[in-house]
Structure formats: C-alpha cells, structure tokens
Amino acid sequence: MKKESTQPRPVLIIVSCIVLAVLIFTALRVISYGYVPVDDAMRHVAKAISGKGWEEILVLRPEITMDSHIGWHKMLEFIYHITGCSADQLVVFSIVSLFVVFCVVPIFFLKRPEAWLMALLCIVVANFGSLFRVFLGRPFIFTMAVIVFLGLVWPRFKSKPIPWPSVIILTVLIALATWIHCLWYMFALPVLCFFLAREWRAGMILSACVLVGVMIGSLLTGHPIQFFMQTTGHFFHSLGDHTLARQLVTEFQPFNGDVMIAMVILAILFWRALRKSWSFKVIDNPLFILAGVSWVLGFFVVRVWTDWGIPAVCVWIALEFEEYLKSVMDTLSWKRVGLSLVLAFVLFIAVTSDYNGRWTNSLSVHYLSAEKPEHRKWLPEKGGIIYSNDMTVFYQTFFANPHAEWRYILGFEPTMMPPEDLAIYRKIQWNYGAMEAFEPWVKKMRPEDRLIVRAGSKPGIKELEWNMAVSGTWIGRLPRE
Fold first, then answer.
1. CA-CA distance, 191 to 207, in Å (whole number)?
2. What average pLDDT score do residues 284-297 get?
3. Of 22, 329, 418, 420, which has the fewest Cβ atoms less than 10 A away?
C-alpha cells in the first residue's frame, strides 16, 4: 500500500470541492424540475404554516396529545416567519437542506472523498429508490446523517483518551435527531450492533451518547414524559393494529431483500478476496453488522433497512473504496482530480435524469384549493371533516389549504384515528376500497362533511351527490335540500 503524503494536499482540497459542488448542484437540479415530494414533506410544511396543533387538523384518538416532530416543525416555522416564504419554497428548503446534511458529512472525514461519490453511485445504479429517499425532505434524513457520522467517527472511540469533541458532537446530533425525528428508541439498534461486534469500549461510549442525547432531545420537546409515552405507544399501534401486511403504510411493510444492493456488497467482498486483501474485520465490525441486522429486520419493516441499513452500507462501501484508492493512487496524484470529475459527472447525470418522470410527476398534480371558487363550494364547510381512505388526499389537500377550518379523518398514520374509525378504514382496505365498505362513514356524515375518493369513475354511493373537482378525485356530500 502506498503511503499517504504528509505534505500540504491541494489535491484533497480540489477533490473535496468537486464532491461538495456536485452534491449541491444535484440537489439544485432536482428542485429545478419543480419536484415536490408526494407525502410527509407536504404535511410538515403545511403544519408549520398552519400554526395549529394536530388536534385541530386531524380527528385523533385520545392518546395523541402532542406533536411528535416538534423540533422539525419549530425549525420550519422559524424559517417561514423570518423569510415569509411560500409553501413551495419551504418544501425546497426541506429537500435541499436535508439532502446536503446527509451527503456532506463524509467529506470532512474521508481522506479520499471521491470514494463517497463511488459509494453513492453504486447505490444509485443498484437501487435508485434507496437514495431517492434522501430527496423526500423528511426529518428521518437527519437521523440517517447521524448514522453516517457515527459510521465514520466510531473508530476514535476505541483509543484512549476519550475523544471528547467527537463524543460531544455525536451526543448533540442524537439529541437533535430525537427532537426533530422522534424515533429515539431506534438508536438501540446501533448500540446492539456495537456489542455484537464486541467493540465493548466503543459500545459503552455510544450507549452513553445515546442515553444523554435522548434525554436532552426529549427535554427539548418541553413534555419529556408525554413524549416518551406517545412515541412508544405510537410504535406499538402503527405496527400492531392491522390484520394484513398490506394494510400498513408502505414503508412499514416488509421488503423483498433489496437483492441488487446485496449483490453489490457480495461483489465488493469477492473483489477484496481477488485482491488477496481479505480480512475478517471487513465484516466483523459494527458498521457491517448494523447493515446486516437492518437487512434482516427489513423483512419485517422495510424502513429499518432504508433508514438505518442504507446509511451504514453507504459508509461501508465508501471506506472499502477509500482503502483501495489509497493502495493504487498517491494522495497528491492529479489523477484523483480526473477520477473525481468523471464520478461527479456520471453521478449527476444518473441522479438528475428524469427517468420515468420521477422528478416531474408532481407537475401534473392538481390540488383541491379553497381559493378556487369551483372547489370551494364542494370542499367541507367550517367544522367539517374530510373522510377518505387515501392519504394522498390528506397530503395534497392540507398542503394547499393549511389554514382551512376542517379536519381529516385519515392523516399520515391510520392508527392515529379513533378506534371506531380505524376499524372502518381497515374494512375498506380489506375489501380493496369497495364502495360498500364506506357505508359506516356515509352514515356518520353531516352536511358540513365530505367524502373524497380517488377513482376513475363516479363512486357508486347513491346517498351522496358527487362532483369530480379535479381529474380522478371525487367529492361527495349529503344532498342539499
């Protein structure tokens, strides 16, 4: 292996700038299409703009008494009030800021930052959907960035004395992730993997960081006990209140093994063996074990793999490529600049390509808006409730009408509904959206309420009068006298 030069490294600075530039330009190119995520990014932005609590937005079961993502909403509210930006601009901020936070962390730790581009390119080619998630503008991406940071910094925990700057930064990041994202209990997973790897000292330091960080993050919510109880209860409800796996929201369903990324990992291991540089520590380390455990748990809940396994895999691949590059290319070689430029170009094209309309599909979305007279007369009246079996109705309608004085029976998680409404919703799912299954909701409807259904033809519920407000979206109400 070639020795790393101890001289000033202008090549490293240039390469780092190339990596940083392509990541920023990639994010800017994506949003230039007019891309808007189709799910939670819209409801986070609308929540921040509305200035309302969830009880004023959704029909909730009694146990839901606080905002679990209070940190992220506080940040968005701050940006909204100091800038006066629009909802679309706040979505842009969400997408770009979280993507950059996730992608720039390795630049400060890798001696060969171009290895990070190689890792991202591997993931993009193997399964673009895994990297697509970092463009969703949702707070889980911050937690993914924390895993990336942990994957790069943890070797420092093995040596004495304790690296206090790294420990403090990690603790602060975990506190922020708890405050922003609320899945504090999932940090038990990397802790477990450190002990499975028998990294006792590093595992103990990480355990302390998690314990202190989670406590600080929960205190930041202003209601720590309530926060712990609600998030823990939500975990059991969201994964347990169903009969069939297909009744879960998509990201809580099982996955099929992400075969292509598994093949990439196996190929890298085989490549290492061919180079006669095999070491058991390549797989017997917390990072690889975290990826492996997350992959196995993905057969139960895919989000464990996408949110915890994928960041670990990205860092593991980057470290594998970094080790190889160190052995074949001197740190001061200008070949590194050429390689970085090629990688940057290919990654930029691969990610920003509008394959299958992935960045422009949102341009054809027509929102129901109370500002349009033709929609206003069909939307709910003050104090009304929107009944629907489609979360997209909630995301899009709430995004377009954050100040509306109606509520939604179905929001971003079905198990937040009152139990009797959840039972109706599960029956609708069981019957694949058959119109007969909506009957209990139709019987509950008041003149100010609406039933909104996404369908290609007029719903066959004769008790209601219908209007197709936008293409494929039907609004039903009780007949007017």
1. 6
2. 97
3. 420
